[in-house]
């Protein structure tokens, strides 16, 4: 009986470790650049205090962010012309 219970819980545990596949994601911007830089290089600065660049949440987020930046012609390198100050995650409301 315990084995059946574990088999039932295992897929739920895996789903909790993955980002949801959402097409429309809410994004907030605190500033816009007036011009597009000629040198399209970017660096990511995390604003989350509880997340580091080695955490699984950040790595999953980075795997989705990098292709979007590359599609727009940016390279992630330091020193960079553009600094992306990112805070990501979910907020509980209510």
Describe this structure in words.
With 94 residues, the chain is of the alpha/beta class. The chain is built from two helices and three strands; from the N terminus they run αβαββ. A three-stranded parallel sheet has the order 2-1-3, covered by helices on one side. α2 links the parallel β1 and β2 (75-76). It is globular, with a radius of gyration of 18 Å.
What's the short story on this structure?
With 94 residues, the chain is an alpha/beta fold. It contains two helices and three strands. It has a domain of 51 residues.
Poorly predicted parts: 1-20
- Helix and strand succession? HEHEE
Anisotropy-based shape = globular
Mean pLDDT: 67
Helix percentage: 25-40%
Q: Provide the structure class.
A: alpha/beta
Total strand count, please? 3
**Which sheet architecture does the biggest sheet show?**
3 strands, parallel
* Major β-sheet strand ordering: 2-1-3
Using only C-alpha atoms, the radius of gyration works out to 18 Å
Tell me the strand percentage band.
Answer: 5-15%
Give the distance, in angstroms, between the N- and C-terminal Cα atoms.
Answer: 37 Å
Total of DSSP H or I helical runs spanning 4+ residues: 2
Give the key terms.
94 residues; three-stranded parallel sheet; globular; 3 strands
